[in-house]
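Student: I would love a firmer grasp of how sequence relates to backbone shape in proteins. I am handing you a single protein, as its sequence and its fold in token form. I am told such tokens are a discrete way to write the fold. I hope you can help me see how the letters and the tokens relate. Take your time, and here it is.
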Amino acid sequence: MILRSLFPSLVVAFLLAFAGAVNAQAAQKIEWKNLRPQLASLKDPLEGLTQDQRFDIETISWARGLSAEEKKLVQNKQGIEDSKKYEKQFKEAGISVDDLLVKYRSWQSDVEERQKQVNESLNGKQIRMPGYLLPLEFSEKGVTDFLLVPYVGACIHVPPPPANQIVFVRLAKTIVVNDLYTAVWITGEMKTKASSRELTLIDGSANISVGYHIESADVEPYKEQ
């Protein structure tokens, strides 16, 4: 897809910048790290392993998780053979792969659960935060609904960030966009609300898990502050 710069298409929308600046004066400025709740650190069960051993355990975990049909696929043959070799190496080193995998999978589950948790202290607060606007769809008449993400490529070129690192944004005014990922400041009332949003892609669509919502948001081009 050949995409044109978004800024020329946002001239009308950014006429709202003055109103947004006024609202921003009363809003709490936050960063992406503030969206994560403060929790005690989890103990990494692979902490005592070398980097190579960590990779080996992940390979073994992957291989053991394959279905009977997946194990027959040619593209999985080398990985399966490698996993058997790694299991033998762990056994020779006196390390129980079974015990490690139980702890590792439990840790993975805890990490995934934490990525869904939000910072409830932000609920109902007027906030101001930077990010990249990703339109959920394109329309010649303009759109209001976006995902605010922390980095370029999120949800399109690389897997989505955790739900607590994505904000669904509905702008106060419709804007016409022709591109992806424009750096902006968003101001509005933050709501902690888990949901799933459909993102239109060039080859289909994807459901993206979201942890926060901002309705009737004001938008301004990003500038260092």
Residues 1-19 have pLDDT under 50 and may be disordered. The first strand starts at residue 28 and ends at 29.
